[in-house]
Amino acid sequence: MAYADPLEDGLAAFDRGDFGKALELLQPLSEKDIAAAQFRLGAMYAGGLGVKQDIVEAERLTRKAAKLGYAEAQNRLGLMYVNGQGLEPDAAIAVNWFRQAARQGYAEGAFNLGISYFNGTGVPENKKTAYEWFKQAADQGNARAQFNMGVSYERGQFNQENFEQAVNWYRKAADQGFPDARFNLAVMYENGRGVSKDNALAIEWYSKAANQGFAPAQFDLGVIYGAGKMTPLDYVQSYKWFSLSKAKIRRAQKYLDLITGKMTPEQLAEAKRLVKEWKPVIPETSKPMQ
């Protein structure tokens, strides 16, 4: 016979979006200083999920969980100090909470600590220390840290330029569905940097990023299909991608006008249909951002 576990059931209710049930189960546990319950309730009050939004209460609950040593709450409290959410902004206090989370092996805390050192916010700027925290977060599977590692090797920020290592880290982040990494990996394949030049793989990674709604990848696909670059000429696909990217990339409208002038009425109708029906794809491997 399986026995009910209020905490497990409450967390499951939160994860599936049943916030009424989550509140019912987690509220009593929060009052008993169960940190996981306090943290989830804090998130509910922060976002107005099943309760009236109350940033002050969100901060209070998050702080209680953080003081009990709950790493995710420590990281979240650090972000609240960075953003001035429910309290006065204080980068130095934020760094303290990021550090506590990172020392427990919480990857997001290590990443945010790396950002603090990289930008010199709350601590003196120190690129070497930033690299060390980014590396820890990346090794623990944090996609944003893995992307940053790729950028650092591609640009030679922390060490010598190394395109092979850049590709390695971009691929790790790309496999988790991180669109920026998917785009950069496509660029590496297109230009043969750190990998053998491969147009098919370049288009594949551009397409994965574009299908997530990443505007630079959408724009580049518009160029690729409109110029017959790396793939047969396809004005319909070119129109679609330029049209989808124009809200974020201003020059896309100019290219869209040029492509439109080359299209038949049938092609234009098909392209407009594709734009209307397009929906962003959420990769199965992507993880929710902390």
**What is the H/E string?**
HHHHHHHHHHHHHHHH
Give the C-alpha Rg.
23 Å
Strand content: under 5%
**Spans where pLDDT lies below 50 across 5 or more residues:** 286-290
Structural class category: mainly alpha
| Proportion of helical residues | 55-70%
- Describe the largest sheet: none
User: Alpha-carbon distance between the termini?
Assistant: 35 Å
* Average pLDDT over all residues: 94
Per DSSP E runs of 2 or more residues, the count of β-strands stands at 0
Number of helices: 16
Q: What general outline do the C-alpha atoms trace?
A: globular
Please characterize this protein's 3D structure.
It is built from 16 helices and no strands. It is globular, with a radius of gyration of 23 Å. The two termini are 35 Å apart. Helices cover 69% and strands 0% of the residues. α1 packs antiparallel against α2. It has helices at 6-15, 19-31, 35-47, 55-67, 71-83, 91-103, 107-119, 127-139, 143-155, 163-175, 179-191, 199-211, 215-227, 235-245, 252-260, 265-277. The chain is mostly helical.
